[in-house]
Design goal:
- With about 300 residues, the chain is α/β, with parallel strands linked by helices.
- The chain has one domain (about 5-305): Aromatic amino acid hydroxylase (Phenylalanine Hydroxylase, Orthogonal Bundle).
- Helix content is about 55%, strand content about 5%.
- The strands form 2 sheets. Strands 4-3-6-5 form a 4-stranded mixed sheet. A two-stranded parallel sheet has the order 1-2.
- Helix 6 (about 110-115) packs across helix 8, helix 8 (about 155-175) packs antiparallel against helix 9 and helix 8 runs parallel beside helix 13.
């Protein structure tokens, strides 16, 4: 952007979710992995971050698990400005060799899991509007950096993510050996749905036992001001010890607070569950899970079939 005119730069300014010209143009060029053009963040973008971070702090202290609390401290995030991913990575990589990897939007399933396998976390760089802080159907940089990445500072959690990435490689190997195209697609659709459900009920919306009762480790909860309290305090939420057969057959919807959540004992337990998930995959137990949400799109299927 060294030769960009002043008027062109003004047109680019702002990295607001669904309004960022930089992202639109990256997608038009077919660029999934991008740089974070930090100078394009507007004052409103930084104000969104400040508001989000400020109001979450007290909720994290009350409801977040201890590993998250340590992670927030370890990353030294600026509460008043959108973080530079290169700064985040300077603190993150020495701890678990993970790093945040900026992307222009949706990452197809196999590519997403493969990033985890390589200790890279696909990270959205846009941020929600400052007057619409409470709900966003798609991730933004607050969800990814303040919700997900603090958990990546914990070695046991990071290892579980890597193992989850391994499962995608196993799935690709399994379906590549199926000669009948229709059966291959049917089986792969079921496996991807099972993996997505597992990820949802653990990495995104997981709870964990502690000496002080249930605490939150799921990033969808950790980045939601309303739901982080609701998931622990509300009598309307069902909370069960996690069982793999329940999770892989349980559909979910993304546009409201979750009525059903599962809790693990610790991250060693989570790692064991991922091992079990892969074993079930190899044994054919993920090839016919219950129908329903989430949907599996063609882009996800192709990402597994054309590696």
């Amino acid at each position: 952007m060294a030769h960009t005119t002043v008027n062109e730069l003004k047109a680019f300014m702002g990295l607001t979710t669904n309004e960022a010209k930089f992202i639109e143009q990256a997608r038009e060029r077919g660029e999934l992995y991008i740089v974070q053009p930090y100078d394009l963040y507007s004052p409103e973008n930084h104000e969104s971050w400040r508001k989000l971070f400020s109001r979450m702090h007290g909720r994290w202290e009350k409801y977040a698990n201890e590993h998250f609390q340590l992670g927030i401290d370890s990353l030294c995030l600026n509460p008043n400005a959108v973080p530079r991913l290169e700064d985040v990575n300077q603190f993150l990589e020495p701890l678990t060799h993970f790093k945040a990897k900026p992307v222009s939007g949706y990452v197809p399933a196999y590519k997403f899991f493969d990033c985890l396998r390589n200790r890279e976390f696909p990270t959205t760089i846009t941020i929600r509007r400052s007057d619409k802080l409470d709900y966003l159907p798609e991730p933004d940089i607050f969800h990814d950096i303040a919700g997900h990445v603090p958990m990546h500072t914990d070695p046991a959690f990071a290892d579980a993510l890597v193992r989850f990435g391994d499962c995608a490689h196993t799935a690709a190997e399994i379906v590549s050996g199926i000669s009948d195209k229709e059966e291959q697609i049917r089986r792969l659709t079921s496996i991807i749905r099972a993996m997505a459900r597992f990820f949802w009920f653990t990495i995104e919306f997981g709870l964990m036992n502690s000496k002080d009762g249930l605490k939150v480790y799921g990033s969808g909860l950790l980045s939601s001001y309303g739901e982080i309290e609701h998931c622990i305090e509300s009598p309307d939420v069902q909370r069960f010890p996690i069982q793999l057969e329940w999770v892989i057959n349980q559909s979910f919807e993304i546009d409201h607070y979750q009525p059903l959540l599962f809790h693990v004992e610790n991250f060693s337990h989570l790692f064991e569950l991922v091992d079990e998930l892969e074993k079930w995959m190899k044994d054919g137990k993920l090839g016919n899970v219950a129908p329903g949400e989430p949907g599996v799109n063609e882009e996800d299927l192709v990402s597994f079939l054309h590696i």
